[in-house]
Design brief:
Blueprint lengths: L9 H33 L4 H20 L1 H4 L5 H16 L6 H18 L10 H21 L7 H43 L1
Helix pairs in contact: 1-2, 4-5, 5-6, 5-7, 6-7
């Protein structure tokens, strides 16, 4: 394994580090605000708090929708982090009455991390990528809430499985034909250029 030296200046490296730190903090803050909005909507009986929760949730959805091209680079890290943190918890809980939910949740969440990793490598995302990532994020957050409730709910498996299915369908049905079409266009344009050169 060969380790190459970073040829960027110290200022550029510091700027890159600050961007990564800011992105992580923004991600944690967004997740915390989503959790707060969820609690306001589901746990508080006061109608004012419920309304405020819905307003906060709507605002976060708008923000997440407009910043997909940023957070898609590290989205796969979220389900991966959950799997690493809760692996032992699920294994020890296997013998509990709903232990199969914990194990199934971690398996499905691991699949979600693998399927969403490719988004971090894309140079350009299309509209369907944005829709799929937002849907996968919603399924992931819903499944985590259901899995971490006082008693794990079966909906954790349903939502995690739905998120996996959305990512898989997008990869097979939408993204692959789109990539093939782009490659064909490049080949054809290259052929035209080479022919005109002769």
């Amino acid at each position: 394994m060969r380790i190459s030296r970073d040829r960027r200046s110290v200022a550029e490296q510091a700027k890159s580090g600050l961007k990564i730190a800011a992105a992580l903090l923004a991600t944690l803050a967004t997740i915390a605000l989503l959790a707060l909005a969820y609690l306001q909507i589901t746990k508080v009986e006061d109608s004012k708090h419920v309304f405020a929760g819905w307003i906060l949730m709507a605002a976060l959805v708008v923000i997440l929708s407009t910043t997909v091209h940023f957070w898609r680079r590290w989205f796969y890290f979220l389900p991966g982090f959950v799997v690493m943190r809760l692996g032992l918890w699920a294994f020890l809980g296997w013998f509990s009455p709903r232990g199969y939910i914990r194990i199934g949740f971690l398996i499905l969440t691991s699949i979600m991390a693998v399927l969403s990793y490719r988004f971090s490598k894309l140079t350009r995302i299309i509209v369907t990528d944005r829709i799929v990532l937002l849907s996968a994020l919603a399924c992931f957050l819903g499944s985590v809430a259901a899995a971490l409730s006082e008693e794990p709910k079966f909906s954790a498996l349903v939502l995690a499985g739905l998120g996996d299915l959305i990512l898989l369908l997008q990869w097979v049905v939408i993204r692959k034909p789109h990539v093939r079409m782009r490659q064909r266009e490049r080949v054809e344009s290259g052929t035209v250029v080479s022919t005109s050169g002769h």
